[in-house]
Amino acid sequence: MPKKNFLWVREDFRMEDNLALHSISSLEQKIYAFFIYDEKKFKNRSAQQWWLYKTLVNFQNKLNNVGISFKIYADNEVQCIKKLIKSENIDKFYYNTIARPDELLIESEIEKNLTSHDINWKKFESNLLQDPFSVRKKDNTPFQVFTPYWRNAEEQYLKNKNFINKKIIYKKSVIKEDNNAVLNLILPKKKWFEKFEKFWTPGEDMAKTLLKSFIKKKIVDYSTNRDIPSVEGTSKLSPYLAFGEISSQTIFEECYKISQKKIGFRKYINEIGWREFAHHLINFFPQMQTGNLRRQFDKFNWVKDDAKLKKWKQGKTGYPIVDAGMRELHETGWMHNRVRMITASFLVKHLRINWKEGEKHFRDCLLDFNAPNNIAGWQWVAGCGADAAPYFRIFNPILQGEKFDSEGMYVKKWVKELNLIPKKYIHKPWEMPEDEQSLINFNLKKNYYAPIVNHAEARNSALEAFKNLKN
User: What's the domain range around 367?
Assistant: First the structure.
C-alpha cells in the first residue's frame, strides 16, 4: 500500500496563509485532506451549521480543483483518526492547532495515537498571531488587562513574525468528490437560517474581497463609524475569521502597512488584539469556559425569569435599541458590536439574568461565534471577567440609543412597527403622548411593547445586588 500524507482540516478553510496546507503540499506524496464533523460540537451552534455547510462545499471545490482529495466524516474526532490510522498507510499527518483548552486535549490524545504508530506528525500555529501561552508578564504570570497585554503581544509578534502570504504550490489534475451524505447531516432542521443567504456569501474569496474593500473605503473612519449601527462601518469579517477563511495574520499585515499614520487602522488592529487576548485568557484561566473568572461572582444573586429571557431573545423588551439588536441577530446571524454590548448589559444588569444564558443564546445564533471571544465578552459586560467593565457601569439603553442611533435609523430598520415614531421618542416611545400616538395611528401596547422593566428601578436593583455581593 503506498504511503499517504494526511491533512486534518479544522478551522482553517483557506488556501492562502495556511501553514499546514502549505507545508504538506511541498511533499512528494499525494495529499488526502479531511474534516470531521462532530455533531456534539455544533449541537448549540445552529447558525454556524449553515455557514459550515457552505464553507465545506466551497473548500472542497477549491481543493479538488488542484487535485487534493477532501473527505468529510461524521464522527468523534479521536475515534475517527484512530480508524484512519488502522485503515490507511499514513506517512505524514499535518494540522493547524486550535488554541483552546478543549481542542488542545483532543490534539494531545490524537498525537499520542500517531506517535504510538510511528507516524510523523506536525502541527502549526496558523489560526492566531502567536501561541497564546507565549505572552506573559515579566514575572511569568498571565495578563488580565488588555492594554498591557496587547502592547507586549504586538511587540512580540512584530519581533518574531515570519509572515509570508504563502500559497500552496500543489497542482494536480482536477478531481470530483461526493460528500453529500455527510453534508446533508450538517444543516440544522430549523430552516430559519435560510434568510442568511441574503446577507452572506461564505468562502475565502469573499473574505479577501471584503478585506480589500474595507481597507480601501471604510477603515479610515473606522474609529468613529464602528459605534454607529446604522452605518456599514465595520468589516463584517468576523464569521470568515471564525472559520479560518481568512487568517488573523493576513488581516494584521494588510492593516499594519499603513497603521502608523491613521487612527482608524490602529483601532481595527486592536480588534485583532482583543481576539488574541480572549484566547490568552481562556487558556490561562480555563475555568472561564464554565464559570466566572472573578470567583466572588459565584455568589451573585442572579434572577431566574424565563418569561423575560424569552422576550429578550425575541426582541420584545420594549427598549427599541435592545429589540433592534436582537432582531438583527435572528435575521442575519450577526449583530453590531456596540449593540452587542447594549443587549448584553440589558440582560445581565436590567434583567439580572445570568450571563451564561446570554452566552448560550449568542453561541446558537452568531455566525461569528468563537468560544474565547464570546465567553470573554460576556464576562467583560457582566463584570465577572478580566479587564471587566465594573458591574456598576450600567448602560442606559435610552441614552445609548440617542447617542449612537440619534436619528433612529437602526431601530427603524429592524423594529418596523416604530417606523413612524418621531425622532424625539424613537428610543423611548412610552413617553409619546396619546394624542400624538393617535395622529400616526400608533398604540404602544397594541403595536409595540411596554418596557418589561423600568430603567431606573432596574439600575437601582442591580446596584443593590452588587453592593450585597461586595459585603
Answer: 295-470
Same-domain check for residues 365 and 223: no
DSSP 390: P
Structurally, the chain folds into a number of domains equal to 3
Mark whether 387 and 275 lie in a shared domain. Answer: no
> Does residue 221 register a pLDDT over 80?
yes
| Whether the Cβ atoms of residue 99 and residue 127 lie closer than 8 Å to each other | yes
Q: How far is CA 189 from CA 102, 179, 193, in A?
A: 27, 19, 10
**In a shared domain, residues 276 and 365:** no
Quick check: is 372 in a domain?
A: yes
Same domain (yes/no): 35, 145: no
CATH number at residue 43: 3.40.50.620
Alpha-carbon distance 304 to 307, whole Å?
9
List pLDDT tens digits, range 394-432: 999 999 999 999 999 999 999 999 999 999 999 999 999
Instruction: Kindly state the helix (H) or strand (E) to which residue 465 belongs, with its residue range.
Output: helix 455-470
Residue for grid cell 478553510? 13
In a domain? residue 172: no
**94-105 confidence digits (pLDDT tens):** 999 999 999 999
* Structural contact between residues 57 and 63, judged by C-beta atoms closer than 8 angstroms: no
What pTM was computed for the model?
A: 0.95
What pLDDT, in 10s, does the model give residues 341-394? 999 999 999 999 999 999 999 999 999 999 999 999 999 999 999 876 676 789
Cα separation, 123 vs 341, in Å, equals 36
Asked whether 51 and 367 are in contact (CB, 8 A), the reply is: yes
Tens of pLDDT, residue by residue over 226-271, are 999 999 999 999 999 999 999 999 999 998 887 666 667 888 999 9
Assess whether 248 and 107 both reside in one domain: no
CATH of the domain at 426: 1.10.579.10
Residues 403 and 338 in one domain: yes
Residue 149, domain CATH: 1.25.40.80
Q: Tell how far CA 132 is from the center of its chain.
A: 17
- In a shared domain, residues 220 and 243: yes
CA distance 401 to 206: 32
Same domain, 119 and 132: no
Q: What interhelical angle do 263-284 and 101-116 show, nearest 10?
A: 60
CB atoms within 10 A of CB 168: 19
**Cα Rg of the chain, angstroms:** 24
Residues in contact with 265: Cβ distance below 8 Å, sequence separation at least 6, in sequence order: 219, 220, 222, 255, 256, 258, 259
Cell matching residue 110: 490524537
Q: In terms of Cα–Cα distance, which of 376, 336, 349, 343 is closest to 361?
A: 343
